[in-house]
Amino acid sequence: MRIRSFLLLPVVTIVFAFALSPAAAAVSAPRLLINQDFPDPDVVKVGSGYFAYSTGAGAVKVPIAGAPAPEGPWRVLGDALAAMPSWAKPDGGVWAPDVTQLTNGTFVLYFSTTVTAGGEMCIGAATAAKPEGPYSPAGDGPVICVPGDSGDIDPQTFVDPDGTRYLLYKSDGTTPGAPAAIWSQKLQPDGRTLTGPRVELLRADLTSEKAIVEAPSVVKTATRYLLFYSADTFQSSGYHTGYASAPTMAGPFVKADSQFLSTGLLGGKADAPGGADVVDGHIFFHGWLGGGRTARGLYELPVTFPGDVPQVG
């Protein structure tokens, strides 16, 4: 998720806790959908069913899986990305993909990868005629690559009911220096042209977040915009999913007063739940498999929004 040189000051620094407490204490066990490495999932509903995309593994740049229903059965299908873009390191890896469909029917795949010049992570785009691809890199450079961000990753699109298209992403931050933040950038209908300044939605300002916020995903309820995000270090069992609420996409986003998904709240049934994506009444997320730190599987729970407050189980 990216820009070039907007010097807009952050809209708001979120300090206060939002007095909404998700009823997660009695959550049922999450459903394990893909029992192999499939981290940072993005799920898309299409007429023929559902597709999911994940961070690359080995020679597979963007793993893709398909299912007839959110609960599955899910089947890993192959690689959605046909080739690395010319501006990226050939062996730089591909992280946290996101797929959206434009009004003209074209599918756009956003992804994070390493640029050849500089070595930082930036966000690129690829296009295809079908959700399963193959996707071909689009443009001569990244869509988002902001100097001073120390890398831009975790793209996620959101289309407002009014038709406005947004690209959300994480700036890595520096140590010492500014902590990680989540930004929103408006897009033209082509899905690749930026319009207006970027807006800071929230920043890692809680002790439990360990200076990390990432993996944004927005849901519009009846009267609120809910921004789900991951926090803490992904290798840690403290890695969790939180959310913040705002009256508009411009904010101010105020964080809930408790975590939404965590290892403890899920009774240890999913370790370090994060990378969440909310689609069609379900929240999809990854968690470490087998008590180790070598593979993260794809999990799912039903989610509802009574009174504009998310509840799972």
Throw out a few tags for this protein:
globular; Tachylectin-2, Chain A; disordered N terminus; 313 residues; five-stranded mixed beta sheet; mainly beta
What is this structure, in a nutshell?
The chain has strands at residues 17-18, 31-34, 42-46, 49-53, 63-67, 75-79, 95-101, 107-114, 121-128, 136-137, 152-159, 165-171, 181-187, 194-203, 213-220, 225-231, 240-246, 254-256, 271-279, 282-288, 296-304, 311-312. It is an all-beta fold and 313 residues long.
Explain what the structure shows.
Mean pLDDT is 91; it is low at 1-26. 0% of the residues lie in helices and 43% in strands. By secondary structure, the chain is mainly β. It starts with 16 loop residues before the first strand and ends with a strand. The strands form 5 sheets. Strands 1-18-17-16-15 form a 5-stranded mixed beta sheet, with no helix packed on it. The relative contact order is 0.19. The radius of gyration is 18 Å and the shape is globular. It has one domain (20-312): 5 Propeller (Tachylectin-2, Chain A). It has strands at residues 17-18, 31-34, 42-46, 49-53, 63-67, 75-79, 95-101, 107-114, 121-128, 136-137, 152-159, 165-171, 181-187, 194-203, 213-220, 225-231, 240-246, 254-256, 271-279, 282-288, 296-304, 311-312.
